[in-house]
Amino acid sequence: MKGIAQRNGWITYRSELESEEGRRIPYVTLTSGKNSTNKLRIWIKVGQHGNEPAGDEGVLALLGRLAHDSQWSAKVLEKIDLVILPRYNADGVEYLQRQLASNYDPNRDHAVLERQQTRAIRK
Q1: Alpha helices of 21-82 — where are they, by DSSP H?
Q2: For helices 70-79 and 54-68, what crossing angle results, to 10°?
Q3: Rg (CA), the chain
């Protein structure tokens, strides 16, 4: 993601978020910068379960398509701004487990915001 962002001015790479064990949780924002206040904003967050890689792979394929086809991406970004977080559960990926490092299921945390990681991502 960092390389794609470096090659495309409409993608911004961010990495200030951390998992429970201190692993970086990078994400990207995609915008044409034009009329951003009137556009639909879409947040794509996948990779909640570390043992389910299809979401991570799918959203990275979308990001690759956007980076590869500049005409298509320009049309898309005329109407929307995107935030893509492809790996919510970096610790779960490391351990190939559904839960966060604390053994808390991230699906359950979106309503109660018990874990700091979920609160930081939500913010």
Answers
A1: 54-68, 70-79
A2: 110
A3: 15
